[in-house]
Amino acid sequence: MAASPKYLTGDREGIKEFIDQFDVFLFDCDGVLWSGDHLFEGTVKTLEILRNKGKQIVFVTNNSTKSRTEYMKKLTNMGIPATVDEVFGSSYSAAIYISRILPLPPSQKTVFVLGEKGIETELDSENVPHIGGTDPSLQRPIEQKDYEEIASGAALDPSVGVVLCGLDFHINYLKIALAYHYLQRGAVFLATNIDTTLPSANALFPGAGTCAAPLVAMMGGKKPTSLGKPSQAMMDAIEGKFRFERKRACMVGDRLDTDIRFGIEGGLGGTLCVLTGVTRAAEEWKGGETVPSFYVDKLGDLRVGV
Ligand SMILES: O=C(O)[C@H](O)[C@H](O)COP(=O)(O)O
Ligand SMILES: [Mg+2]
User: Fold this and answer.
1) Whole-complex ipTM
2) Domain finish residue from 171, 191, 226
3) Distance between Cα 14 and ligand 2 center (Å)
4) Rounded to the nearest 5°, which phi and psi values hold at 197?
5) What pLDDT is stored for residue 305 in this prediction?
6) Which of 5, 70, 72, 123 would suit a FRET pair with 89, their CA atoms being 20 to 30 Å apart?
7) Domain total for the chain?
8) Which domain holds residue 271?
9) Any idea what the Cα angle at residue 296 is, between residues 290 and 300, rounded to 5°?
10) Burial environment of residue 219 by CB neighbours within 10 A (0 to 12, 13 to 18, 19 or more)
11) Among 200, 226, 231, CA closest to 212
12) Which of 18 and 305 is assigned the larger pLDDT?
């Protein structure tokens, strides 16, 4: 049975001990730093304090709609100094998995994308060919000729060896149909992440996992391999890049089944659950398998401890 987590809001001594315990902080983004374009109060100051204390900060997001560069820009525009190197997103994690790890026949290296520009940019950064995604010719209702051409294979690109799903704000019937027929022809089923919901405007909206759900249903429940949190392939890649001692690192997140599980399964020294995103109350982990080691009402509450 996991130890009950330590509540830090208002606990000046507890916050000081918490911060001193770690050298590296892996920060989730949606639901922790901000909700959509709404930056949570105290976020900028808290990160500044951690940097001034010489702490290593890494932004580890499952949101695949933006590339690392686009995230660096969003962070900077929000008043959070950051470099591209400090950002590690699920779209990058998927791109390096496909280009450096996944064995694919030379004739089948193309990825059919169900997702946004962030995935396409990161696949380009790894020279991985891709189709689908933001292709405007797919932003339309399916027509009778599409059924025939997809069923016969005439509309299918024979070099597709992977179907990669992420958060897709432009998902539609035609793209799902194409993805399904590529999977039927043996393409590898991958996802950048499986979050079922996206926190935005202080509410929840369909997430990447929800975008992949029609394919999971059509595939008789077969789930994609996910390269975002809690995947330990992502943790190994982050550790390999930033070279830190796991026991001196803390994962800060708002979601139990991705962020907190990621930290626990990664053997990190601690996990901090922030109650401004998907998880809203301690009750949500009570009696559950995934229990954080610390929790706080909002990230900005940490700044009182220094
Ligand atoms: O549906 C999604 O893709 C997720 O809700 C979103 O991406 C979560 O991002 P994170 O909280 O990991 O920054
Ligand atoms: Mg989050």
Assistant:
1) 0.98
2) 226
3) 24
4) -130, 155
5) 64
6) 5
7) 2
8) 6-62+230-305
9) 135
10) middle
11) 226
12) 18
One domain for residues 139 and 197 = yes
In a domain, 69, yes or no: no
Q: Are 68 and 92 in contact (CB under 8 A)?
A: yes
Question: What residues have a C-beta under 5 A from ligand 2, the ion?
Answer: 28, 30-31, 254, 277
Choosing from 20, 23, 28, 85, the catalytic residue is: 28
Question: Could you say which of 20, 30, 168, 257 is catalytic?
Answer: 30
Write down the H helix ranges in 126-260.
144-152, 173-184, 208-218, 232-242
User: In this predicted model, what pLDDT tens digit does every residue of 55-72 receive, in sequence order?
Assistant: 999 999 999 999 999 999
**Where among 226, 242, 268 does a domain terminate?**
226
195 is catalytic: no
Q: Is residue 46 located within the same domain as residue 126?
A: no
Pair (123, 216) in one structural domain? yes
Other C-beta atoms within 10 Å of 160: how many? 25
Q: Which amino acid is at 248?
A: R
In the predicted structure, residue 125 carries a pLDDT above the cut 70: yes
The Å distance, Cα 30 to ligand 1 centre, comes to 6
Enter the tokens of residue 303.
């700044």
- Please say whether the beta carbons of 161 and 154 come within 8 A: no
